[in-house]
Fold this sequence. Notes:
Strand content of chain A: 5-15%
Order of helices and strands of chain A: HEHHEEHEHHHH
Radius of gyration of chain A: 23 Å
Shape of chain A: elongated
Oligomer: homodimer
Largest interface: A-B, 106 and 106 residues
Distance between the termini of chain A: 49 Å
Number of strands of chain A: 4
Structural class of chain A: mainly alpha
Number of helices of chain A: 8
Amino acid sequence: MTNRELPTTAYITLGLLASRDWSAYQLAEQVGRGVDQLWPRAERQRYNTLKRLVADGLVATRSEHAGKRPRTMYSLTPAGRDELGQWLATTAAPPALEFEGMVRVLMSDHGSIDDLRRTLEEMRADAAAKRALFAEHAAYISATGGTFPERRHLFGLANTFMIGHFDHIIGWATWALAQIERWPDTVAPAADDAQVRELLAAGLRAGEPPRPPGA
Amino acid sequence: MTNRELPTTAYITLGLLASRDWSAYQLAEQVGRGVDQLWPRAERQRYNTLKRLVADGLVATRSEHAGKRPRTMYSLTPAGRDELGQWLATTAAPPALEFEGMVRVLMSDHGSIDDLRRTLEEMRADAAAKRALFAEHAAYISATGGTFPERRHLFGLANTFMIGHFDHIIGWATWALAQIERWPDTVAPAADDAQVRELLAAGLRAGEPPRPPGA
DNA sequence: GATGACTACTGCATTTTGCAGTATAGGGTG
DNA sequence: CACCCTATACTGCAAAATGCAGTAGTCATC
């Protein structure tokens, strides 16, 4: 029952256990099927967190066996359900983006124009692949209801965000590739005042109106 | 000269030192002025990484003094410049998003509709504040050239991305708030098949065409 | 009954983080 | 000019998170 503040991973675990009981591995697997795109943490942490929750009395264990192998099933306790509800009433940490590719864009004056072009192309390809994954998943949920049918509406909200997020990366990368099309190298364009001014202004214009996803 | 792979923070440091010499504190401060939105790491790491780079011979030190206090100035060695160039020729890690607010959206069937509404509003407000910061910074660079005038064009590319990113969050949150407007609670809408189907479809429609930022 | 692929984790050495702690500089106040 | 406050400029350390190798059961195939 030691109760220092729980990490977000713990609430994800509680949230999954709120729907049904799972084994540790199933739980870890479920997290890997999507939520980890919103809260990326090492797989190892999923097992550590579970132990912590049991120690805190928020999750209960029960022994079963699949064949001859024993497996522990985990379930939410009333205290755990309570904790989840209380968490939802508090304020979330602001979103954070980790984007090494964009760091490279900023530093690309120390590399070749081909390095820059390749970086942008890889960003676009990666985003397109992930978009496809989310689109596929949405179609699957729409057709079958998915693993958490009681949360389909919430999944719909989050999924729309993710698709838009990847579309934004794809759109930006396409635009950036067009911008650098005629650059002789990664250094010279800094001197072209008109072009620089235009690039800086592009960002400011981009948001009017702030894209309505369903329109 | 121990050379296991360097972390991305190291390349950011090398990239800043490629423009001019800095003290450790100035360097840490510069990182806090923007790049940390693309590569968020604890401030502590900025000092650790610098020591590592000196040990590896990629960065050289020189003693100066501001008043009576001695301060160490850091500068890039030829080996360091080389390392930076080589890094740019390799492949970047894919972007990762850490978004606790969206995790709460997914779990919000265990909280009140007001919790959900508040979460969405906080997300929107936070994104609007950050967008304003980036817009301000762009105006400042446009007017004065900024601290890295030789990189204005690259900053323009990255800044356009960041503004679009925050606009996407703002736009999505606004849309989501409109969607939940008439929800009686966070649980019932799962039963409304038409609405769920509509929510899931919204995401798929959102990306055509994949928004050209400057258009 | 041996083999290889998958399931289901645990142990442990490193890395990273968060934060408290230290110490000097410079400016304003009585 | 002694004092206090705030900003600068970091370091030390305990605790948390990560990466990855290791272990061991299961199941299908030959």
